[in-house]
Design brief:
Blueprint lengths: L2 E7 L12 E6 L5 H8 L18 E6 L3 E5 L10 H17 L3 E9 L6 H13 L3 E6 L6 H14 L4 E4 L8 H12 L14
Parallel strand pairs: 2-4, 2-5, 5-6, 6-7
Antiparallel strand pairs: 1-3, 3-4
The structure holds guanosine-5'-diphosphate (GDP).
The site of guanosine-5'-diphosphate has 19 residues, from α1.
Length: about 200
């Protein structure tokens, strides 16, 4: 899969102004969002893997296969950040999701070992309200047994009824084929998607 860095932005008005479709990645700080983006595009360091979690406050745009973009949004829930800052993050994301016309769908990245929280609920509800499709990407599945994974999915499915859920591991490079299949099929992204990367299949 061809992936190139386009630009970083700190504000909505600095985002690319065109009609290219965008797949937006959101997740709690340290969920494994950067690792997942790197796995999806088969690159070691397209998106930074956080040494200092929660530090990046940028939106990063990557052009995929010359046809659509991945947008990496800043992580939420970083404990060392103040309540006021977390609130500011919430408002910013809400504005971004409201205003940005390019969005094809949301990828909510979650550590498979965590419980659904108010932050995930807020994003999920907002996406339903805005009519944006979503995909719950459960990362770090290599940390759980198959049975534990199934239990986690069953439990999260109750909170996240309308989205497809993918069990993934950036370490083992699993779940990537299903991810691509799902967003390609459901979100009508591009004919050129490369589905050949999964170690599972
Ligand atoms: P981000 O803050 O959401 O971008 O998370 P990162 O991608 O920086 O990952 C946070 C930490 O989790 C890093 O130490 C990663 O090496 C680790 N990590 C990410 N994905 C996986 C995974 O699939 N399996 C395992 N075992 N560790 C992972």
């Amino acid at each position: 899969m061809k992936a190139t860095f386009v630009k970083s932005a700190t504000e909505l008005r600095h985002c690319p102004q065109d009609r290219v479709k965008e797949v937006v990645f959101l997740g709690r700080s340290n969920a494994g969002k950067s690792s997942l983006i790197n796995s999806l595009v088969q690159r070691k360091a397209l998106a930074k893997v956080s040494g200092t979690p929660g530090k990046t406050r940028l939106l990063n745009f990557f052009l995929i296969n010359d046809s659509y973009r991945f947008v990496d949004l800043p992580g939420y829930g970083y404990a060392a950040r103040s309540g006021a800052e977390q609130e500011k993050w919430g408002r910013f994301i809400e504005e971004f999701l409201h205003e940005r016309k390019n969005i094809a769908g949301l990828i909510l990245v979650m550590d498979i070992r965590r419980k659904w929280s108010d932050d995930e609920a807020m994003l999920y509800e907002l996406s339903l309200k805005l009519g944006l499709p979503g995909y719950l990407a459960l990362t770090k599945s290599d940390k759980l047994s198959k049975t534990q994974q199934e239990k986690a999915v069953a439990s999260l499915k109750k909170s996240c009824k309308y989205w497809a859920i993918g069990v993934m591991s950036s370490l083992k490079k699993t779940g990537i084929h299903d991810f691509h299949q799902s967003i390609y099929k459901d979100w009508k992204l591009s004919e050129k998607m490369d589905l050949s990367v999964d170690a599972q299949s």
